[in-house]
Design a protein that fits this description.
alpha/beta; Rossmann fold; Dihydrodipicolinate Reductase, domain 2; 17 strands
């Protein structure tokens, strides 16, 4: 089995999730490659012991990411750092000749994204992708397979979103995602938007224009010392778009909602397609349930509820009757990335990571959304 040696830049929550996926690699049954974690970089030394205690393969712990990039052992990098650092670090990773899975939004703004994609273009030999776990849930995989056919008929509308709830608490301390200098002017769009955009973009539902409603609902939050400090990022965004049906050629409404203040939600993804012949709806609030409506003229418009089992793009040891969860979606995402690095066979259009070109489209959309809100206008994407 081919071993791909990885470094992590940004050893926080998502860095640990990737490390855990490495440890679970034996869960996958038909992979021709596996990751080995050999280097970790973070400026916070308190994060290092967990990695050292659990991963004896790690031979480098550093606070300077350039030292990690100089390590000849490191072939690929997972980078999870604040948005303001994306341009410099992602470009340096690519220039160093390392494959990269980076976090969204792939640059704090459109200018930063352009700089990153220029480096991507200059290094076609590398696999550069953006993280998004959403499509790997079994219900979403089924919807993807239906989109490959004409199950839906002419599209009536598509709705996609990613909803948080914890920011409903105005006493929740501020962190970098609520600071414009680190998170950027996109606010919730930059932090959450790709999760809601990945699947529509992959389906070919490209926004032509947008009318955006943006909300700053909590204008101050407690700082580290307990004193109130300005909270300048957008909490919620609702993007009303027009997209073309790539199969039938007609326009339809596409609504995308990345929201940090969504009462009753906890990291809820949802996706809905309505067509003249069929409809589908899925939400991570009830991740096993897929709702389908298949309509023929004169028949009842009845919604069928299906409880999906453990149906995965990349086969695992888990029996099909069991449930699928977030850590499983992360493992599937990483299986897709390793498959691309090693030139393996694709598991399908909807079983792969966000491409750099899709991050560019998200930046065009979010930039247009900012203009739309500022001018109370419909903006071309």
């Amino acid at each position: 089995m081919r071993v791909v040696k990885f470094g992590i830049i940004g050893a926080g929550v998502m860095g640990r999730e990737f490390a855990s996926a490495c440890a679970r690699w034996c869960h996958l049954t038909q992979m021709e490659a596996r990751p080995e974690l050999v280097a970790v970089c973070d400026k916070n030394p308190a994060l290092s012991p967990w990695y050292q205690e659990n991963f004896p393969s790690i031979r480098q712990i550093t606070a300077d990411y350039r030292e990690l990039l100089d390590n000849p052992e490191v072939e690929a990098v997972y980078c999870a750092v604040p948005h303001n650092l994306h341009e410099q670090i992602y470009c340096d990773i690519i220039r160093a000749g390392k494959h990269l899975l980076g976090e969204k939004p792939f640059g704090i703004d459109r200018e930063a994204n352009d700089a990153i994609l220029a480096e991507v273009k200059a290094h076609p030999e590398l696999v550069i992708r953006c993280s998004s776990e959403f499509p790997f849930y079994p219900g979403m995989q089924r919807i993807g397979r239906l989109l490959e056919t004409d199950f839906f008929g002419p599209i009536l509308e598509v709705n996609s979103g990613f909803l948080h709830s914890s920011d409903l608490n105005p006493k929740k301390p501020i962190n970098w995602k609520r600071m414009i200098e680190f998170n950027g002017e996109y606010g919730c769009m930059g932090d959450l938007g790709m999760h809601a955009c990945h699947f529509p973009f992959r389906a070919g539902f490209v926004p032509k224009n947008v009318r955006a409603i943006l909300s700053k609902l909590v204008k101050e939050r407690p700082g580290k010392d307990g004193k109130m400090v300005p909270c300048l990022t957008w909490d919620n965004a609702t993007l009303f778009c027009e997209a073309d049906d790539p199969r039938h050629g007609q326009a339809f409404p596409l609504t995308i909602k990345p929201q940090r203040i969504a009462p009753g939600e906890t990291d809820t993804w949802y996706f809905e397609v309505k067509g003249m012949h069929g409809c589908a709806r899925w939400s991570s609030k009830n991740p096993r349930r897929l709702e389908l409506l298949e309509y023929t003229p004169g028949s009842d418009q009845a919604i069928q509820q299906i409880d999906t089992g453990y149906e995965t793009a990349f086969e695992t040891i888990t029996g099909g009757i069991f449930e699928f969860g977030f850590t499983d979606s992360i493992l599937q995402m990483w299986a897709s990335f390793l498959t691309e690095i090693t030139g393996g066979a694709s598991k399908g259009r909807f079983a792969s990571c966000v491409t750099p070109e899709e991050t560019r489209l998200s930046h065009k959309l979010f930039s247009a959304a900012l203009r739309s809100w500022k001018n109370a206008s419909l903006e071309t994407v």
